[in-house]
Structure formats: structure tokens, C-alpha cells
Amino acid sequence: MARPGFRLALLATALALVVVLLGAYTRLTHAGLGCPDWPGCYGFMAVPSTDSQLAHAELHFPDHPVEAQKGWSEMIHRYFAGSLGLLIVTLAVQALRRHGRDGQPFKLPLVLLGVVIAQAAFGMWTVTLKLWPQVVTSHLLGGFATLSLLFMLAVRLSGAFPASPAVPARLRGWAGVGLALVIGQIALGGWVSSNYAAMACVDFPMCQGQWLPDADFANGFNLTQHIGPNYLGGHLDSEARTAIHLSHRLGAGLVTLVLLGLAWQLKHAGLPRLGLLVLLALGLQVGLGISNVVLHLPLAVAVAHNAGGATLLLTLLLVNYCTRTVPLPAAQRDRWHWRPHLPALWNGK
């Protein structure tokens, strides 16, 4: 039975996904500096449009001529992010008011509040530090972290996913490794995006017609890049971007192998539907990734690839949640030791 706050948490989760996709759209359309200031746009709360507003923008931001389409991409992203922040504040207030009642999670909403505050700071630094890749990637990871925490809050409040005290430890290990690798792959994807390396390889499965093209991993993963220049379009040379792209591909291969193993483990543990969900999310993401390369990064596919990454991440979170261990009362241990108790929703019965 769903607990109080479930619908609000579910709404916030959906909104967080929208914010993640709007952020991807903003990056992919090179609109990250569509508004050169923060939190407004050329000193206004909307993109300048009147003659007086445009004159003000030209006077105070002479190096950043107004591009209305890019400005609106950035501002719409900020409006949705601000709305999400208000929902998270509401969830935190609700957690404080209902602390200790109805199984209401307490720490998770407060952690969410801290994360969204940090996200606001990273959003500001993304603009003021002119798309510095370290900040852009951190901001992207913060968005996925916000989405993940909201999803887990909704799952906990739903009451629909009981833990299983008899899941093999091996399965929990596969699930944990799979989740860690997916998070790492998302981070690599963020580094690809923030360094404009998506088109470093325009063929598949080879790269630039070779299996091992020239690649500069030292500069591709140099985390000491100077703060100051405008990073719109990226500053790395071709070999450094190739190294980033290749790393993302290799990571995708490793994630695929591990998640195939996880799906197999889930099937044999009596959770075939959960294993099928992993396979579907993985297949979707791999297909979108390959399509990005062979179709030369069409905007719709690139945004969908971000949605696929989010779907895969939430799937792995659900797997880890459903396969976690919970202690049983002593009176039940003898009754449970000889037969597994598996979440009914996923056991295929």
C-alpha cells in the first residue's frame, strides 16, 4: 500500500527526468551559454525581446549577442529545474512533519534537498565558468543523482517492492557491480558530451577505419584543464577526443557483458521479469548508442540516448533494491530457510 507522499515523489521523479532531458537538449544544441548570466538571462527573468531589453543586453554583454532560440532553451531548462527544486523542498518539509509516522523516509528527502542545492550551484558555475568540462560533467551527474534519489524515494513510498531475504549473495554482487559500472559509463558519457567527443569516431564498430586509431588518453582525461577560456565547442585536439570516445565504447562493452550476466543470474534466481527488464533497457541503450554513431548524432537520437541511460540506471537501482537483504525475526528464520521469498511482482508467477 502506497504511503503518504508517493504521488508527489512520483511526480517529482517524472519532472527530474524531464529536467535531465532538457539539460541534454541544451548541451546538444550548444545552448549552454544561451544566457551568459545566472539565474536570469541578460539581467531579465526571460529572454530579452523588446528593443529596450535588447539594447540593455548589448550594452552589458557585448561579447554575447542575443540568440533567442538558445536563450529560451536555457531558460526553459532553468524554469523546470526551479519547479523541481520547489517539489523537493515540499518533500523535505513533508518528511520533517511526518517523521516517525507511516514509515515515512526521513533522511532521503533531506539528502535530496542538499543535492538540489548543490545542483543549483553547479548550474551557476556551468555558466560563470563558461562550460568548463569538469563542472558540466559534475552537473550532469548531479542531475542523474537527483533523478535516482527521487526514484528510490518513490519506490520506498510505493510499498510495492518487498526485499528478499533469500536472494543469493552472488546475485547481489552482480547487481552492485552492474550499478557501479552503469554510473561510471554515465560519467564517461558526460565527459564525451562536455568535451564534444561524440563525433570523434563516425563509423562502427571500427573508429576512423581502424580498430586502434591514434588516441591521446593523457590529454583526453586531463582533469587539470585551466578555468577561464570559453569551452563551447571544446578545446581538445582530435586524438584526445578519440581517446574519450574509445573509452566510452570500451565501457559500453564491459557494461553489456556484466548486465547480460546479471540478467542470467536474475533468471536463475527466480526473477525472470526483472532480468527481462534489464535486457530491454540494455538493448535500447546499446541500439541508441550505435545509432548515434552511424547516423552522425541526430538530435532526437542523442537526447533519447540520455533517456536510455536514465532508464538503465533506474533499472539497476530497482534490481539492487529488490535483491537487498533484510533481517527476519527469529521466529520466522526456520520457516524461511528452506524456501526463497522473492518479490511476487518479478518472480514470473
Textual characterization of the structure:
The model is unreliable at 328-345 (pLDDT under 50). Helix 1 runs antiparallel to helix 3 (68-97), helix 1 (6-28) runs antiparallel to helix 10 (299-322) and helix 4 (107-128) runs antiparallel to helix 5. The protein has 349 residues and is mainly α. The chain is 65% helix and 0% strand.
List unreliable stretches of 5+ residues. Answer: 328-345
Q: Helix tally?
A: 11
Instruction: Give the beta-strand count.
Output: 0
Helix and strand sequence = HHHHHHHHHHH
What's the mean pLDDT score? Answer: 90
> First CA to last CA: what distance?
20 Å
Helix content: 55-70%
Strand content: under 5%
Shape: flat
Outline the biggest β-sheet.
none
Computed over alpha carbons, the radius of gyration is 22 Å
Counting helices, strands and paired strands, the structural category is: mainly alpha
Which features would summarize this protein structure in a list?
11 helices; mainly alpha
Structure, briefly:
The chain is an all-alpha fold. Helices cover 65% and strands 0% of the residues.
Q: What's the structural blueprint in terms of helices and strands?
A:
Layout lengths: L5 H23 L22 H10 L7 H30 L9 H22 L4 H26 L10 H26 L22 H4 L17 H31 L3 H23 L4 H24 L7 H7 L13
